[in-house]
Fold this protein.
Amino acid sequence: MQKKKRILLKIGSNTLTKETNNISRGKIEDIANQIAKLKDTCEFIIVSSGAIAVAKQFVKLESKQEEVFVKQALASIGQPHLIRIYQEIFREYGLLSSQCLLSYSDFEKKESKTNIVNTINVLVNNNYIPIINENDTVATDEIKFGDNDKLAALTASLLDVDLLIIATNTNGIYTKESIINNNPKTIEDVTDFEGLKNEVVNSKSSHGSGGMQSKIAAAALAKKANIETWIVNGLEDDFIANAFENKVPFTKIK
């Protein structure tokens, strides 16, 4: 039997909400549909943001505490809802899913790293798709990932995946000049990684906590582990399948 390609798919809040204030069930259906079509040749591990965005749909917390604690509380409220939405939709496509919450400190301890690898391998080998998020409820300001791009890259490296796909709200990384000229042009194949850093304009998306710089940093971590990174426009339908078939512009970092 041919070995399946192991893919880590990172989905940010901006992709999951389709740049609105609500989680898009249609976007999760699009992801489930693509995974279902690719399941004979690929196995998926998902790193998903969106817990805070889900909670904001239901509640407005009143607190005199610092904003980070309010966000942690929102994450606590939103995380079960987020996983429930994934499970409901994935089930409709014949897909099984599970929840894994990780903290930055988990990647610093040998025993924790071994436990992550063993648990996720058992899940994947039994056709479960692990849906990973940062454990925002216990993370403090100092150890928070700040953006799941880094979490995705660390997880990809630990699990020795074949490909890291970061879904974002652009057609990959644009040249700086093309952004200045208001005519975005995608850098499709990155040959000079150091030079790439100079092309990045620092901007953050409306819901996400990172910008393109955090994606470059994630790609650097993946590159160190000899993992290829694709930065793809997750707002488009069939974005994974279209990237595989080279039907859309996206950035490939080897």
Q: What stands out?
A: The chain has a mean pLDDT of 90.
